Structure formats: C-alpha cells, structure tokens
Amino acid sequence: MSSAVRWEGKLSTSFAELQGVRQGSVWSPSVYKLFVNPLIKKLESESLGFKIGNVFVGTPMCADDLLLISSKPDELQTMISYTSHFAETEEYNISKEKTKVMIWNSSLNCNLWNQMDKFHIGSETLETVENYKHIGIDRDSREVEATRTIIGNRLKTARQTSYALMGSGLHGLNGLNPEVSCKLWSTYVVPRLLFGLEIVNLSAKDISRLDIFCNNFLKQIQNLPARASNAGAYLLLGQLPIIALLHKKILITFGTIARSDSVENDLAKRQLSTKGKNSKSWFIRADKILKQYNLPCASEVLLKPETKYKWKMKVKKCIDNFWSEKLFTEAKSKPSLRYLNIKNCKIGVVNSIWKSAGSEQMCIRKACYKIKMLLDTYILQYHRSKFSNGQKTSICPLCEEGTEHLEHFLVVCSALTSIRDIFISKLYTVVVPKIGTAAWTDICVSNSKMIQLILDCSRFEWYHVLEKNDINLVESITRSLCYSLHEKRSVLLESK
Asked: Are 235 and 340 within 8 A, CB to CB?
C-alpha cells in the first residue's frame, strides 16, 4: 500500500506504508479488525474472559481500543499475557501508559484479588486505578452504578462548551437570536452532554440533573427567569426535553444492534428472554422505552429489524408526537400560558416571535420583553403583592386606578394610553385590510382579545389569511408596543 501527501493542489512523491492503517480511510477500521481478529478468536477459543450466560463478552473493542474483562485475577493476567505475545509476534507496541487495570466489586472474591498483587505486561507492571476514561466514557470503580462521575463530567464538558460559545453570542440579553442559539446548542453542546449516556442506566436523579441544566439554558437564551414555565420555554423554541433526546439515542442504538450480526445481538436475545421486567439490564430498559412510545417490543424489533433510515424516522415521529402531547397537556394546565397558542407550536419549529426578530440586537431585546409578558413572567405590581403575601399593594403605581396585572398594563392603564394608541393604529392599518372592519371591531370590544392580538395573534381564525410579510409586520409592531410600554412604565416609576 502506498500513500502521498496533497498540499496546495499538488501531490508529493508516493511512499510505501509498511505498518499500520491509513489515517482517515473508511476501510481502516475493517482492515484493523481483520488484523486483530485472531487474538479475539484465540481468547474466546481458550475460554478466557467473561461470559454472560453462553455469550462471550470478554474482549469488547472499538477501533484499536481493547478491553479485557474477567471475573478471575489469574485469568485476567493470562489474557494480558496473550495480548502481549500477539503484539510481539505481529511487531506492534502496546502503550504501557494508557493500559490500566480497574477492579470492580472485588469484595465478591476478595481473597482471590488480594492474592494477585500486581498485573504486568512482560516486565512492566500495570497501574491499578479507581477511575479511568475509556473511549471517552468515565468509569469509577468506587461507584455501584458509576453514574455520578459520568454525569458530573458530561455536565462539566457541556458547560465548558457553552462558555466557549458565549463569545459568539450564546447567552441571553444582547446575545444571538434564540433561534440561532438553539442551533448552536443542538450542534455543539447536546452531543457533548449526551456522549455515551445512551449505554448507561441512569437514575431518576441523574436525569433530573441533566434536565435542570437544559431547562436553565433554554430559559437563559430567552432571557427568562428560572420561575418561567418549562413547557413554555420548550414550545417557544420547538425543543424537546433532554430525556426525549436521550431516548432517541437509546432506541437508535438498539436498532443498530437489531440489524447487526454481533455479540450485542446475541446478548440482547438472551437478556430479553431471561431477565424480568425489574432487571437493570440495558435491553430491558430499551424494551420499556419502546413500549412507552407505542413502538414494537424489543423482541419484535430483533426478529424483524427495519432499515436504518426507516427506523430513525419511526423513532423520531413517535417521540416527537409523544412529547408534543405531553408539553401541550402541561401548557394547558398553566394559567401563565393562557395567551400562548399551543396548537401553533411544533417540535423543530421556532415560534414566530423569535423568527421575525432577526439578528438585530434591538429587535431581539424587544422580543425578550414580549416573551416575558406572553409567559406572564414580566413583574408588575400584582406579582409583587402576590410574592409578598399581600404586604405590598397591588394597585397600579402609574394611574392608581386598579390592580396592575397584565390586562391593566397592556390595554387599560390610562397613564400609558398615548404610547398604546400609536401602535394600535399601526396594527389597524396592517390587519384590517386582511380581516375586515367587523373582525377588528370584535377584537377592540374585548380586552382579552386585544391582549391575544398583541401577544400571540396566531390563535385567531383569520391568522392563516395573513402572508409572511404581514405576520412579520404584526410581530414588529406588537413587540415594539410591549417594549415601549415597558420603557414608559420605567420612566414614570423613576419620576415618582
């Protein structure tokens, strides 16, 4: 085999490759498997290594990373010696610095493991460690489930990634449009957060830690307070909760196992036929997730595996539909989301408030205040009174004519009439030619309908007759109205 280097459009003189595999070639993993397969077959034929039932799982591999698993210390040393001899025969070196020994649940055979003082390759003694990273996944022998270390490191990596992207505007107020931020989040942060977690049995506490991190991030990029509804934050951005994304990875991985003729496939069949529903087996967990989304049970998937594309599309559709209904149900139960048109929210589609805001900083800032009012997190005197258990008055400090709640602030307060009238007249010129005078009059005689027009006009039947430019104009006028009312209120409060 020969190679050459391409530089500035030119090829160097070719040179022979006498050892190793070509870097980056699609054939390299397959070629390496052919090369190392005799070692794996040798260990299996000699019955060296761990078995689950009659399924040999003693030598899992990924690329050139080999893991040797045994429940007996002397057997593990024999496996290491076989591996070392194979390397000498085939003239390649094993990295002594990267080769470590971890002992799990040694208390089960305490005497046996204590007798084996050290493991070695030739004359080199191998270090025994309590934690180690293998193919990017952290393991700790001191933890029963080993999830605390994994989740902690995944969260740390995700935070570091998000902090690194803050310079590009991945933050709240004065940052990027949340539509763009979500794209960066999905492309860079989520893959690092969920890396390897699809093969780990996470506890409810672990999932809660991931969920809190994601909830806080999605609220942060929309400049929302922590008390804002989680359902509202997800629906406005068309995002799925982290548990849904994790379930997608688990089911797609299970589909890959079902299509393959592999040890994992044999192990899946055994575990599903021998383990009970309360087992901690990964395959039992996958079966429960399949049933949760009304997909075929694990045994059926193994019996009749679908193509990669068809399976991914089926999983995506079922999970998206399930969580859409779940988020819709939660949103309907929240009085704070009464003005959000849930029917217009779709997974994967960002709300028109953010879509129409574009990349201009001032438009994004205005949209942030409109979103706060839509989710009822904009602090008015009514909220101050409620949070203080009535110790503070709920009367509007501007006009002193009634309780300052959202309806009063947006459409009633006489101190803000001059600002309000300017933008309502602009709305009239845009909307009336499309919907007619009668529909406009019907809106004007009802405070709740006027608030609906200002915060989310997609709930009206006539919304679908508006063209894209009309929708953008309505959004521009209403977000300017919300921001101008906020500014006017702040100025009047400062003057008192």
From this structure: yes
Query: Phi and psi of 435, rounded to 5°?
Result: -110, -15
How far is the first Cα of the chain from the last one, in angstroms, to the nearest whole number?
84
CB 171 within 8 A of CB 133: no
CA distance 271 to 268: 5
Residue 26 has pLDDT above 80, yes or no: no
Domain boundary among 96, 129, 162: 129
Is residue 183 one of the residues assigned to a domain? yes
The verdict on 306 and 445 lying in the same domain is no
Q: Please say if the pLDDT value at position 211 is more than 60.
A: yes
Residues 111 and 170 in one domain: no
The verdict on residue 5 lying in a domain is: no
> What is the secondary structure of 330-346 as a DSSP string?
HHHT-GGGTTS-GGG-B
Residue in 309, 485, 283, 322 with CA at minimum distance from that of residue 404: 485
C-alpha–C-alpha distance, residues 315 and 293, integer Å: 8
Percent of the chain with pLDDT strictly greater than 70: 95
pLDDT at 55: 86
Average of per-residue pLDDT across 250-265: 92
Give the model's confidence band at 340: pLDDT under 50 very low, under 70 low, under 90 confident, else very high: very high
Contact of 480 with 422, CB cutoff 8 Å: no
Q: Return all residues near 123 (Cβ < 8 A) that are at least 6 apart.
A: none
Query: Which phi and psi angles does 377 have, rounded to 5°?
Result: -115, 5
- pLDDT band per the 50, 70, 90 thresholds, residue 144: low
Task: Return d(Cα 318, Cα 297) in angstroms, integer.
Answer: 14
For the stretch 130-139, pLDDT in tens is 777 777 777 7
Residue 239 tokens read as 């995002």
Domains of the chain: total: 3
In the chain, the amino acid numbered 409 is F
Domain containing 112 equals 27-129
